[in-house]
Amino acid sequence: MAKEQKTPFICHVFVCTHSRGGARKACADNNSPVTLDKLKQLVSEKGWKGKVKVSPSGCLGPCDEGPNVMIYPQGVWFSEVSSEDAGQIVAR
After folding, report:
1. Which of 32, 41, 42, 66 is the most buried if burial means most Cβ atoms within 10 Å?
2. What is the 3-state secondary structure (H, E, C) of the chain?
3. Which one, of 38, 18, 40, 39, lies nearest residue 28 by Cα?
4. What pLDDT digit, counting tens, does each position of 31-74 carry?
5. Coil, strand or helix at 18
6. What is the pLDDT averaged over residues 4-9?
7. 24 pLDDT band (50/70/90 cuts)?
8. How far apart are CA 59 and CA 68, in angstroms?
9. Residue 41's pLDDT is what?
10. Across the chain, which distance is largest between two alpha carbons, in Å?
11. CA distance 51 to 56
12. What is the model's pTM?
């Protein structure tokens, strides 16, 4: 049986880093891994490690609107994200 636990994080930020190798548009085509790294850096600088988790994710769905970032449990979604938007996302 799976062990259920309460999350140690206030929120979890998922950044789509999915790539289709150029076959179709995907979030990684617009440097979403760079955005992931920038968000991790800002979370660390703010001293939020252990409270806010930033993770890469696979496809979140609306690839044509990517890169996509979602924040849970707040239910906030950002589309067309670049690394320059990381500050706005962290301020959320």
Report:
1. 32
2. CCCCCCCCCCEEEEEECCCCCCCCCCHHHHCHHHHHHHHHHHHHHCCCCCCEEEEEECCCCCHHHCCCEEEECCCEEECCCCHHHHHHHHHC
3. 18
4. 999 999 999 999 999 999 999 999 999 999 888 898 999 999 99
5. coil
6. 93
7. confident
8. 9
9. 97
10. 43
11. 17
12. 0.91
Helix (H, G, I), strand (E, B) or coil at 71: strand
Nearest partner of 12 among 48, 62, 38, judged by Cα:
48
Give the separation between CA 85 and CA 76, rounded to whole angstroms: 14
Q: Tell me: cis bond preceding 67? Omega within 30 of 0 counts.
A: yes
Cα 28 to chain centroid distance, Å, stands at 12
* Interatomic CA distance for residues 86 and 44, integer angstroms: 13
Gap between the Cα atoms of 21 and 46, Å rounded: 34
Tokens of 28: 């990684």
- The position carrying tokens 């979604």 is 77
